[in-house]
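Q: Here's a chain of 334 amino acids. Please give me its 3D structure as tokens.
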Amino acid sequence: MPTAISEVPASGNEAAGRLASMADVTASDGALRRFLHGLPGVDAVGLQARAAALGTRSIKTTAKAYAIDLAISMIDLTTLEGADTPGKVRALCAKGIHPDPTDQSVPKVAAICVYPDMVATAKEALAGSGIHVASVATAFPAGRAALPIKLADTRDAVAAGADEIDMVIDRGAFLSGRYLDVFEEIKAVKEACARPDGTAAHLKVIFETGELQTYDNVRRVSWLAMLAGADFIKTSTGKVAVNATPPVTLLMLEAVRDFRAQAGVQVGVKPAGGIRTTKDALKYLVMVNETVGEDWLSADWFRFGASSLLNDLLMQRQKLSTGRYSGPDYVTVD
């Protein structure tokens, strides 16, 4: 799909200039409130209808095989349990490197996502693989901690070798209308992602959209996070009843498209939680292609936060190549 001229990413200097021109938006709580509440309201019926229509598109044969491999390469393979052990993390890393040990043509996953105390273990296990280590931080999943604790959590993960940080916003502050507080916290975490050598871990900002009540709030928080410097915007922690949904993800894709057109900065999107089947993953890829185009169809700009999804993708991949479904022992149980 060709990219519209107005949506071509700006050069570094041009993008910086465009963002600087938007600085007044975040100069005060009042200015930020006026901007966010001045965004167009979301047509909920239209959004849901569009998401449903995109979900009916059919992908067959070679296109399906390509899409399955693309989806595998976009997975943040995740273990975020209190019972996580170094052995479990190493096993997950091995699976991320070779998702199907019997078929070396299967692509690697994009990242392994773990708690901060497991980052060093994952980093060692993934050495030389090209797979990123992502770490949740900022008192994941509730985000209920003082800012110094959240920043220390982030710095510890980065120091241990995390390539990406998945932070959670203060939903209480956002829902109370304290937008500037949320903005400043994201900025502070972004700064905590910096390394001594001048590089920085990428920052994914988790909204927990299932708790945000309205589509208008999802649009507002998407712009808020991008203005604060998010590299990715992410739907959910996977720890609540309602996680990623097609309408919410579609709305976030529209937000990153519009933000790039206005600010000249491209931001990634990560739906997480509840995406378990190949059929669901392919629906999301169709949505990406038809909403923001090919520029986002890579692991650099779109991810799936998932654990069980990989197994279904592997079984569907084998079905395409052999004509039959594998048994239940074909894939490892995470």
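Q: Can you summarize the key feature?
A: The first helix runs from residue 12 to 21.
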